[in-house]
Amino acid sequence: MNSVCRILTGLFLLAAPGWAMAVDARQDYREQWPLQLETPSAGAYRLTLGEAQYRSAVSPQLQDVQVFNAQGQPLPSALFRAETPLAQSAPLQALPWFALPPQGSAGSDDLQLLTERNTDGSVRRVEARLGRTGSSAQPGGWLVDASKLDVAVQALRLDWQAGPSLQLRVQVDVSGDLQSWRRINDDVPLVDLAQDDNRLQQRRIFIGRQARYIRILPVSGNTLPALTAVQAELMSTLPAIDWQWRSLQGKTAAPGEFEYVLDGRFPIAQVDIATAYNSAVQWTLQSRDDAGQPWQVRAGPWVAYQLQDSAQRRQSQAQSLATHSRDRYWKLVAAQGQPAQAPTLKLGYQPETLVFLSQGEPPFTVATGSVRAARTYAPVGTVLAQLRAQQGEQWQPAVATVQGPAQVLGGDAAVQPERDWKRWLLWALLGLGVVIVGGFAISLLRTKR
């Protein structure tokens, strides 16, 4: 434990020399909660955010969540998604892949795959044939062989040949036998844009389950780039973080359209629909963070159904979002059926982990909710990697938990936009100058007369 503390002290002094001189900035936040430390002298801690913290935060990136010591100094911290639980990087595994030929316009389900397999079930060769012919052809896709993996695939990371700017969408199907396929995502963005020295890339496809074979097909006639490699992010063997659900009641915005408001900055990753009656409706889910912004499609279209009889209840599975979203406003649009009553919109998320390094005297607190303050970047990931290299791959930060009710700091004033007094003063001076100039002009006119 002493070696851990020495490492933390040295790295902290190199990475964040200004924190020691920080003043108490907690009044810039709405409220705070006291923390209880599992091991008082651990040096590094992980805090799983709760519903109260998500509801109090206002930043779309959750930058207004900060840990403080007893002196009011902010501690170096970083936010990690539940996909990398306990701040541990997901292991990567290279996977074999096969290019699929152009597909007929009859649809993706008409593709027939003739495969040769090894004795262990892995794919040796793939030959694709079209079940039907069409007047036009759509681009081909990719087939990824994950049959040798004995753990679930968290996500796929794709690499392709560098070329012109790329922005397209793909659909993802999984199969256990290359015969029957199940679609898990209809609309995944792939992006590779470059301008000057800046580059924007999105090459990650979320899977979140165990699948022997994964098929990736373009949407709406997009042309896929030349793929060069595929890596799988393997799910951690650590206990999975349970899904939490927010059930929202909506209001009718138009025939077949229902709007909802989310009461916090939750990292929404799944969606489900519940009704009080039997139903089968094709839905599209949209969201936006401001009432003045255009709506963005997050999931669908998909058919959500619910059938209840005297024996049992059957319903459709929850849908995964292509990317996490913290938007405040959500809307369901019915493609058919147009139910008169708004269904219950269920939005699912996995709580994130805030990892922080201790400094100063306890007790430590976590503060949330501010439009003026933001969490300062700290190389916490680098510190954790070095600690894990010395302590072993199984090492994890100690646990910190919220204890007790919220304590009010700046209150609701901390989340209200500040008035720009400098701008108002400049406008006042400008107005005063206009009045003075006008007075001089009138005086000159009278003098000439």
Number of strands: 32
The share of residues in helices is 10-25%
Rg for CA atoms:
28 Å
Q: What kind of sheet is the major sheet? A: 8 strands, mixed
Low-confidence stretches: 11-22, 105-110, 130-138
The structural domain count equals 4
Count of individual helical segments: 4
**First-residue to last-residue Cα separation:** 92 Å
Principal-axes shape call: globular
Based on helices, strands and strand pairing, what is the structural class? mainly beta
Entry keywords:
Jelly Rolls, 449 residues, 4 helices, 13% helix, globular, 4 domains
Describe the protein in words:
This protein has 449 residues and is mainly beta. The chain has four domains: 2-90 and 352-415, no CATH class; 92-234, Jelly Rolls (Sandwich); 244-349, Jelly Rolls (Sandwich); 425-449. The chain has helices at 2-15, 51-56, 380-391, 421-448; strands at 31-37, 44-48, 65-68, 77-80, 92-94, 97-99, 103-104, 111-117, 123-130, 137-138, 142-145, 153-160, 166-175, 182-195, 198-202, 204-209, 213-218, 227-234, 244-249, 251-254, 257-261, 268-274, 279-288, 296-308, 313-315, 319-325, 329-334, 344-349, 353-357, 365-368, 398-402, 407-408. The strands form seven sheets. Strands 1, 2, 3, 4, 29, 30, 31 and 32 form an eight-stranded mixed beta sheet that branches. The protein has a six-stranded antiparallel beta sheet with strand order 6-11-17-13-14-15, with no helix packed on it. Strands 20-21-27-23-24-25 form a six-stranded antiparallel beta sheet, with no helix packed on it. Strand 20 and strand 21 form a beta hairpin. The chain is globular and about 105 Å long. Residues 11-22, 105-110 and 130-138 have low confidence and may be disordered.
